[in-house]
Amino acid sequence: DLPVPDLSYVRLQPMNIAVIRDGRPRYQVLYEIALEVPNVENKERIAVLMPRFQDAATRVLYQNPDGGDGAIDPADLDRLKADLQKSADAILGKGLVSQVLIVRAMRIDR
What is the pTM of this model? Predict the structure, then answer.
């Protein structure tokens, strides 16, 4: 049997990000994000700092939610994950979150 890692997950509230083109909202992207926490004891620290991380995550997602072309592709998600990981390391503490997971990214047309 393979050893089971001591992992825990913290889910953020789903985020609807409006995509603005030519000064008007064109559609939304729904993101569901989870933080992979390698040590269960770190969940309490993360819970205390979650509002600051949620704020940073919202800013990252609004910067460019879909790569600018209306499609959500793996390269966009990889870039977003890297930016979200940088925010997690800076706000929550390096090593507290082993990985930011984008559980869902769905375009919602108006």
Answer: 0.85
